[in-house]
Amino acid sequence: MNAPTDNSYVRTQDGWYDTPENKPGQWRTDVLVNTAGDQEYERKSRAYNLVEGLSIMIFILVALWLVQYSIGIMGNMKWGNTLSEVMIGVGCVYLLFVSPFRHGDTLSSWGLGNPWALWKELRDGSAAKRFTLCAIMLALFIALNALNYSHWAEVSKFFNFNKIEALRDANKGFPGLFFVFGFGSALSAVLVLFGIRYDNFVSAFATAMKIALPLLALIIIGAMAQRGMNAFDGFTLRAFAIGAFGYVFWGFVQQLLFSSFFGTRLRKAFGPSKSPSNSHAPGKRLPVTLVFAAGFMFIGAPLIYFPLLIHFGPEQIPIKLLIYFAVFFAPFGALYGHFFAKDRKRLLVATLSGSCFGLIHINSYGLVMVTFLLGIFLTYVFMKDVNRNLVALGFIHGLLGSSFSIFFSHDKAGPLTVDYGVGPSHVHNPTWGVIAVPVICMLAYLCLMVWYLKFAKEE
Prior knowledge:
Layout: E1 10-12, E2 15-17, E3 31-33, E4 39-41, H1 46-74, H2 78-103, H3 115-124, H4 127-150, H5 152-158, H6 165-168, H7 176-195, H8 201-227, H9 237-269, H10 286-312, H11 320-342, H12 344-359, H13 365-382, H14 390-408, H15 436-455
Antiparallel strand pairs: 1-2, 3-4
Helix pairs in contact: 1-2, 1-9, 1-15, 4-7, 8-14, 9-12, 9-13, 9-14, 10-11, 11-12, 12-13
């Protein structure tokens, strides 16, 4: 049995206990083993975790597509938009501030920093460790304040401060500067103390780069295959770096909702597999990897190519794009096949979690596909405590989000341009047929819940 990731546990012959004073023979009732084999705090049952996670996803889809789209947009009733916003707000409050306490989730289980654990490291660590941590925290605090000041226009737009005339140009002089630096200091302190998990950042960042760098190369190669060196028209390192940093922050926010909430609920809903056929020995994984690579090539590529061909015509969608798509999908298939051969159940649970991340991007189906695939690998690695770090995963968003935006948005890619506008308000030609996909997805999640409750044994 794997050791719990929380240092307060101690091992005895009879089980894991939070303190040595626990009575012999008593198991902790608020600890379970997640899909990847890590032990975590948990007060609810596995079934409760699954039902809650999928119910929240259904609730979000209902708010967006049955309320905002059907009532607010198709029915042209403004109260539908207002009701949808209220529902989404209530849902976010629940999953961020209510659900973690009901389940006994820890900050580290969500990939967040823990100020109390940080204080303990500073108190008990060596002088060199204390100096290094303090220097890093101070440097981050100063850097975040500097970025807040230098990019106040973007910050004020993100937080809607630009709608308040007195704050729109607050960084231009006094007394507005007091607000800019006060707000920046408060936000920086929260990020430095709660947003960054320092104990596993190096290992999590290394894992993030193993995912991000190959995918970054695929994005660039794909853009060059379509447009040659013209893909770099207007590209500057400065714009890329600024965009990347913005996406790191936005990625942190998104993954707080998806990898942290949905990833936590679903990895706790399923225990590790006990089937001997769940994994292949390292020397026998290559055939499975090749089969999935071929499947992604010969199934995935046509599914993308032919709808584009029908919509744009052969002049804009030449046959060579089918080959490009096949080459582009093969590495994703190989990666999926490798993890499938390594731990099938863990990958299937990660696929379910990734679907939540992907489907929130309806009605931009190019973005649905990309975020679905990315969400699978993010939640797969997030299951292990050594990789559970939101800031480290945010760097994946920083690199991939910025590069994908540069190379495949803003009409640069022609018919391959991916629309970054998602949700009901960004549907260009509203029809009732648009809600077919969200409704099918809601029904699929409901069927999965019924199957789980009816046939799956409590683990």
